[in-house]
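Translate sequence into structure tokens.
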Amino acid sequence: MKDRLSIMGIISCILGLTTFAFGIISLITARWRWNHFESIEEGLFQVCRYEKTTKICENLNLVPYLQVTQAFMMMGLVLTVLAFTVTLEMTFMKGTKNIHKASGSLFCVTGLFFLVACVVYTGFQSLYFSLDNGYSFGYSFWLAWISVILPLLGTPAAFLTKNQTFIV
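Result follows.
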């Protein structure tokens, strides 16, 4: 029988790659929280202030909730790479008989790690910091939440990869 590609495997690969891109952008950029009036942006690692035409950044004093958010974002990124690698193996090299279970499980755990990171950050921002006075969540924050959704969408796609209905 001729080897054929699985549509769900290709979808899982695309979701894994997109998750990694959004997750890494979210982690390294300083736009988790943004003050429109004072031109201050806060990320997970630094705070930047715009003064006229210059951008001045300084490292954050790490508080526990930021450390938890950083750790779970990094673990999520590592698992995203693993899930993507396993999914590539499953889709294009046909892997072992049960590799789709490993891929689906990795996607699920990846989504859960990103979820913990986002919930911790959102919870502490909501409880201890006011989003009044010009503060709002920035694009890094929203990309992190998208990084929660994408691997959770990739989970059923990965599990259905070996289903004959989705083979082309």
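Note: The first helix runs from residue 7 to 28.
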